[in-house]
Structures are given as structure tokens and as C-alpha cells.
Design brief:
single chain; 105 residues; alpha+beta; four-stranded antiparallel sheet; 4 helices; 50% helix; elongated
């Protein structure tokens, strides 16, 4: 009986931590705007649609890129993690937000 109670307590703590560290859409927007400008747009082999998107996004300040990302992004919140999808000019960025981090899928 004590083992079941201990397992339930540990599971409750882990679930609480996951829920508390589920990144917000604002975190995602900031991360994706930075990622687009600093890494994705600096790759040499990009599809034509991605090159066009990068030509638009690269010279803009990060807060403007964030506004663009926000208007083309969707969040599905599952309490312990979130799924994010951004579709912009033929590019599709899909990420999982969990534990305060983002993972590309």
C-alpha cells in the first residue's frame, strides 16, 4: 500500500512540474523568431519558398518577426506539453514544447 501511495505522489510531482514548465505561446514565438533569423535563414540549401520567407524576415527586428510568427502559428495545449505549428510562405515549422524547451518534430 505504501508503494502505491509513493508512486502516486511521485507521479503527481512529475505531472505538476510538467504542467508548470509547459512553454507558453509567447515563449514559442520568441524562440521561433530567433531560430528563423539566426539559424534557419543562414542555411545554404533552402527551398525557394524558404529563401523568399527569409528574404522578408532577415532584415526585420526580432519583435516584428515575432508578430509575423504569432499570426501564422497555432498552439495545441495538452497541459503537460504543447504542439506548435507555424505555416508561413510554404514553410512549415512543427515543434513540441515541454519542460521549458522546444523540440522539432
Amino acid at each position: 500500500m505504501k508503494k502505491i501511495i509513493l508512486e502516486a505522489v511521485v507521479l503527481g510531482i512529475v505531472a505538476s512540474l510538467m504542467a508548470a514548465t509547459n512553454p507558453s505561446k509567447e515563449n514559442y514565438i520568441e524562440h521561433t523568431a530567433w531560430s528563423l533569423q539566426e539559424t534557419a535563414c543562414k542555411q545554404e540549401k533552402l527551398p525557394l519558398s524558404a529563401k523568399a520567407a527569409c528574404a522578408i524576415l532577415s532584415p526585420l527586428p526580432p519583435d516584428m518577426v515575432g508578430s509575423i510568427v504569432d499570426s501564422y502559428s497555432r498552439r495545441q495545449n495538452f497541459l503537460f506539453f504543447s504542439l506548435y505549428t507555424t505555416k508561413f510562405m510554404g514553410m512549415e515549422i512543427r515543434s513540441i514544447g515541454a519542460g521549458g524547451h522546444f523540440f522539432k518534430r
